[in-house]
Fold:
Amino acid sequence: MQSETFMVLSKCFAPLSADSWEEIVSCEWPSFLEGLAADLPHDDASQHLLDTLATPPCYEDKHTFAARHFTGGLPASAMPIESLYTRKMPDDLPEYYQEPALYMKDLITSLGCEIPDGFETYPDHITLELEVLALLLESDMDAARDFAFTRFNWLAEFGGKIKAFGAESLFYAAAIDAVIALIDTLRKEK
Structure:
């Protein structure tokens, strides 16, 4: 399993500058797709993910989608933050900075890293969770597996919200489905 694959997937949900996104698309995307193809099962579903992810959105489309759908408080939003999908009781309202955020804050600090500017209120943002997974894959496969198995159970619900946005969400839905498939692959490798 390639940590670079998770790092690039993390950038799909990160608030990046135009230059940063364009650099990822032009420099890292071809090797990302190769790594993803190597790590996914060789089946029709995986091929569909690869086909969908083959053409990432331009910066303007990424920025517009994020402003419309990754912004809290908007009717058509689906924030990529674990705390919002992990409720103690099914009828509880989603809240920021719950157990997942506290866990991620402590974990990031224990790894000798700092929470980047802009993520202080939600250290359980999918971007940081995928970056931590990538870091763990580089250093401790057992810890990476444990982390993946416990931290990403919320992705199916998040992915469902993303898919509800229709055609404009296909790229992001495929990115989430790729993460879920990669975690399933990790599960099978154990």
